[in-house]
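All the exercises in this workshop are built on plain-text protein records. An example says more than a description, so a record of this kind follows:
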Amino acid sequence: MNTGADQHKAKKIGLALSGGGIRGVSHLGVMQALIDRGIEFSHISGTSAGAIGAAFYAAGYAPKEILQMIKDAKLFKMLRPAFGSSGLLSILNARFLINKYIPHNSFKELKIRVTISSVDLGEGHLVYFTEGELDIAILASCCLPGIFKPIIINDHMYVDGGILNNFPVEPLIGNCDLIIGSSCNHLPVVTEIKSFGSLVDRAAMIAINSNLNTHKMLCDVVIEPHGLGGYGIFDTDAADEIYMIGYEEGLRTIEGNDKIKDILSAQNNKASA
């Protein structure tokens, strides 16, 4: 009996995807790189942009297809706040786009397990959605407080999960043998801020990165492209560039990480046996 092969066969690989606006498109590149090398995911956890990538992939779309959908449907542009607007905006106008591509609108019907994080604004704690209506959970996870009206689910107000945890690794712990984290918010050093939007973006990045290292330590592998710091969270025209940055970083990580190499080697040995 080849017990080593059996152990590797049982490996469950989890993927945690951070929030980060359009920078989250880098997750799609990272995922495509891992898939191209033979990695399969059993569970994906995501918040905000990461929740979008997790849900669409688990619905059966390849990362490259998701990238094209985002560009064609201008999904992130619909999620972009209008800073000059009076009052709070509704994020619900993006709901029909999610339903267009995932008509079953159900966690239960996804091909792999997905966890989406959000914050219960009234009770002040993090919530993990794993069942129910998928579209409303995604929008709750993307709902920037102070810009969008909170999403109401069962009389509770929900906003962006990144407020309390922008890198939701915890749902994967105990459920996966190997945890890969994809973070898209590397914080570069800057000497000048030229616009209000850049100021808001910078402040948000500092806030969400405050506990990032703690969550990184929960991962077996962390993929964090450093070239994303120059992109704002609403730089939608840079989607292709951001995707390729993620893809290339994913490939570099695969080539330089022994844990991933061991899994791929075991898979290749089973395939040739």
User: Anything to note?
Assistant: The domain at 13-265 is CATH 3.40.1090.10 (Cytosolic phospholipase A2 catalytic domain). The chain has eleven helices and eight strands. The beta strands are 13-17, 43-46, 113-120, 125-129, 151-153, 156-160, 178-182, 221-223.
